[in-house]
Amino acid sequence: MRVRLVLAAGVLLASAAAPLAHAGGADGLSAGPALEGHVLDGHVLNGPALNGPALDDRAPGSRAADDLTVYGYGTVGDDSTVTLSGMYRCLDDSAGPVFVSSTLVQGNRSAGIGGTQAVCDGHLHEWVNTSVVKDPAYRPGSARVRATLMQLTADEEGLPTPGFLAAEDAAVVLR
Prior knowledge:
Largest sheet: 8 strands, mixed
Oligomer: single chain
Distance between the termini: 44 Å
Structural class: mainly beta
Order of helices and strands: HEEEEEEEEEE
Strand content: 35-45%
């Protein structure tokens, strides 16, 4: 039974997370404007811009919600490997595993780019999703990333059901 649940979760994650991320997330969250610097709690860090509200790493008792951001850039390798990244914070994964999924949109192309299992300890973490996308290949330039922080929980029959904790739709530059 456990193997079937894991297989069903994988299929659900692969088939359901990316299309729902295209809708901006089922929770109705919308993207904020891009920031011009990589800022956490007022401190400039090395790296690209974060989109949406800056995340900070306050004391565990002061966290109000799960959160997700997308860095303002992604990379496309010579072998068509696409890498996207950002930061997330989730508070509780006791009801089921939490994942960061991402979808890259450029022109009329759209593809799910990897998925990262989240560590839900209330602290700030970086996510990095990578995938090889050859047909059609992505090119350096402007694009959009739709990222979703999603938790899989079991329904009455024991099948995994996605619950959306946070979503971000961000403009990025592919390098």
